[in-house]
Amino acid sequence: MGQLSRCISPATLFMLSVNAILGSGWLFAPLYAAKIAGPAALVSWVIGGLAAILIAFTFAELSAMLPVAGGTAQIPQLSHGGLVSFILSWIGWLSMLMLTTVEVQAVLQYAALFFPFLMHDVNGAQVLTLWGLLWAAILLLTLCIVNVLSCRGLSRINFALFIFKVFVIVLMIFSITRIRFNPHNFAGIGTSMVSVQGWQTILTAVAAGGVAFAFNGFKNGVEMAGEAKNLAVAIPLSTAGSVMACMLLYLGLQVCFIGALDPASMQQGWQHLKFAGDVGPFAGLAAGLGLLWLVKLLYVDAVISPSGAGLIYVTGTARVLYAMSQIGYVPAFLSRLNRQRLPMYAIFVNFLCGLFTFLPLPGWQAMANFLVSILVITYAMGPIALLSLRQTLPDKPRPFRLPMANILCVLAFYCCNLFSYWTGWDSISKLLMALSIGLMVFGIAYLRGNINMEKDEIKSGAWFIPYIIGLVVISYLGSFGGKNIIPFGWDFAVIALFSIGILYLAVGSRMSTLIISEPEPAVAVEYS
Description:
This protein has 528 residues and is mainly α. It has helices at 10-21, 25-37, 41-65, 71-80, 82-111, 130-149, 151-179, 189-192, 196-208, 211-214, 220-223, 231-260, 281-288, 292-327, 344-355, 364-392, 405-422, 425-447, 455-460, 464-477, 490-508, and strands at residues 119-122, 125-128, 514-517, 524-527.
């Protein structure tokens, strides 16, 4: 099987994470967040960004301490055994696979402005045609080939993407703001922040407006920690550092978007915000201001940004599958490496699986909303694993150590559960279906003897069942698409108590005895 090569510098890993974060999210989220929360969407970005930074810091300690490829699978295996590891790795792999194909479809949707044969309208939704599916397969295959070539090739492309994407965003903010900026468009922020309904829209925008989705790429630094140099710098920089940098860009984008709107487009309220070209919000604004050169540049970036994010997701998804193979959840050949020490077989299998995910989607916002509900489950493992491994592996060297870990981990876990709750009952119900399928796959594999697991590992993962049931019940009874039996305001207290109880249960259920077999970056685990 072999070990992955440590060829990724801290700067490269940081740029990889930024490129993953700046995918299709910045193209759409400012519009959808503004439709939900109006000018108070700025508050949504601050809340979403600070919560994402807090969650990222928990993974920074874990990945610096255990620099393994596919941390989504490996770290839960260490802290809570095979059951939790299987569920989280399956969810992580599925969500990252979907993220890759969503970014590919975003590229084709923008390309359809010039090549209309790629998409057609089905009940108000843009769906790939047969030609579109063919080009989707070609684009996905191209991203996979780039990943297989070499670590050096990936670094060069990554650097070029980083420079281009950040340059276009900064240039666009400056150009649009310089021509038109209406301060009166921000008049409703104060009103929203002193009313219950205003705060409900602000928090809804975090999850359902694409804000939380827009920050999701930071976890690629976790998946690729096994290939990073100088862990003490690389991991915190690529996780929390990338979120901080992107939060500043997102705030600039939201200010630019709201300030550039014609007040006439908001006459029927922010929820009915509409203007010419709003399918591509910033391109539509630039066209309305006569910035045709910027429109062309934005169309180019609307293809490059999702492609760049898709490239990083292909990389991270392969590492998750590689880690699942090392643990034994999937066939061993998926952890074989090519001459460049890259998991070529895992990349190829992901390509084949990705082809089956190009199905008609209900729109970018709905897909982003659903993916947030899946992703935050994998994020929730960060604070749980950190507190568990501090007790199980107290003497393990930690290049980065999170200060005030007990308090910050509680807050991080609370934020994860809030994100999940804010996506609404519709998304949580679909999450329950996805988890049920995963548990069925696990059960069949376990009964057939494909997964060898000690009873202690089943016991250590038992907390996951009341965790998911609790999220589903609270969402069903709550005020975000549920029955509103738990009214807005009280739901914060309910989720806080629920989070503290589950965190205590999960840490108390950790695996108490484990042996880590070195050398790094691959971590083999044996329980005794």
